[in-house]
Write a structure and sequence with these properties.
It is built from 17 helices and 9 strands. Strand 2, helix 1 and strand 3 form a beta-alpha-beta unit. Helix 1 runs parallel beside helix 3. The longest helix is centred in the first third of the chain and has 18 residues. Keywords: Hydrolase.
């Protein structure tokens, strides 16, 4: 049996069970493969049906990362194999994005509490797993980001939905710069809910076993409340009881909220691009690094991320996933995504040759191709069943 994801059930004092899923590829910072997606999805479905399972914990092995992203090597190989054949020809990409987005949507709509331990690196596909959890927990080592612009992609896995719900213009800034957030800023931006010190995680997990979990409808102590309401409350109380005593200082995103809102205030991406780029020599290294990341990133990704945020601003989560699926398949076929992976992970020269090479070339007419559904006419959207009744 594969051990890329480890599953266990811990028994609480009252007999209720806690499902624990551990991403177990620390050598790749728990990067999310299609095999891991399928294993997680199947186990989450099983735990959802089991009345004895009160809640689920998602965590990563190794101590350095919860999950640093998706299977870029597998996607790169598939792009080489299907180069020039169009978005719909790449069956691996169709499967990967389709099944990953389904898993992420399942987490968003899960019938039981899911605690995601977002300690260490949480990026890309890791954000997709964490974002939908009911109780998202960060630590002093957390480093949360959606840096897809550096590899010719865009903040997917529902990122357009999340970014549009951040305070002010923070979501647009993060989409264009891939800036890292610490625990404080992750909570400020709505990417996390609670914090624990990394060293307190084992004691917290032990404390969970002593909670009076409601595992059966109408079971002992449940009164007139549904088990979900009881267990959400118990988990929240346990997290607050273990919260660090030291106050949480504002992170750079919050410190610079006025400036971020100002530079991202325009409704034209070219104007926003220039405003952020002007920060490349800023005295604050966080702002300077964010600007330099934008300037080094794919201009097409900047245009696409901006356009997606505009188009999906009022859409449901399910519709956002459907829109991102079309855009992701187009990215697989267009070339910049392949080039970004090559420069970062394959040849490792960190000198990507972007095409289009400028934001002016990546104009509004160019970006429309990322919204054209690539499957045969009359075929339903592969994610058509997301929404009410999804199971």
């Amino acid at each position: 049996m594969s051990n890329v994801v480890l599953f266990e059930e811990r028994i609480a004092d009252n007999g209720a069970r806690l499902g624990v899923a551990t991403l177990n590829t620390p050598q790749t910072l728990n990067g999310l493969s299609l095999e891991m997606v399928d294993l997680l999805d199947a186990q989450l479905r099983a735990w959802a049906r089991d009345p004895a399972v009160a809640m689920v914990i998602l965590q990563g092995a190794g101590g350095k990362a919860f999950c640093a992203g998706g299977d870029l090597h597998g996607l790169y190989a598939s792009m080489l194999e299907h180069k020039g054949q169009g978005p719909w020809a790449n069956t691996y990409a169709r499967d990967f994005f389709g099944r990953e987005y389904r898993l992420d949507y399942r987490i968003h709509t899960y019938p039981k509490p899911i605690l995601c331990w977002g300690s260490g690196i949480v990026m890309g596909g890791g954000v997709g797993l964490m974002m939908g959890a009911s109780h998202r927990v960060v630590s002093e080592t957390s480093r949360v980001a959606m840096p897809e612009i550096t590899i010719g992609l865009f903040p997917d896995v529902g990122g357009s939905w999340l970014l549009n719900r951040m305070p002010g213009r923070a979501g647009l800034f993060l989409a264009l710069t891939g800036a890292n957030l610490n625990a404080s800023d992750a909570i400020h931006a709505g990417m996390a809910d609670f914090r624990l010190d990394a060293g307190d995680w084992p004691a917290f997990c032990e404390a969970l076993l002593h909670q009076p979990w409601a595992s059966q409808p109408g079971g002992p102590g449940s009164g007139n409340l549904a088990p979900r309401s009881i267990n959400d409350g118990l988990l929240r109380q346990a997290l607050l009881a273990h919260e660090p005593a030291a106050p949480l200082e504002p992170g750079p995103l919050r410190q610079h909220a006025f400036l971020v809102n100002s530079v991202c205030g325009s409704n034209r991406v070219d104007e926003v691009y220039e405003e952020i780029a002007s920060l490349k020599d800023h005295a604050d290294p966080w702002l300077a690094r964010a600007a330099k990341t934008l300037l080094a990133g794919a201009p097409g990704s900047a245009r696409l991320a901006f356009t997606l945020l505009q188009r999906t601003r009022l859409r449901s989560l399910a519709d956002v996933f459907r829109c991102e699926y079309v855009a992701a398949l187009a990215c697989v076929a267009e070339g910049d995504f392949q080039e970004g992976i090559r420069a970062l992970l394959v040849d490792k020269d960190k000198q990507p040759r972007w095409d289009p090479a400028s934001l002016a070339q990546a104009d509004e007419a160019w970006v429309q191709r990322f919204f054209d559904e690539p499957w045969p006419a009359g075929t339903p959207h592969p994610l058509a069943d997301l929404g009410p009744g999804f199971a």
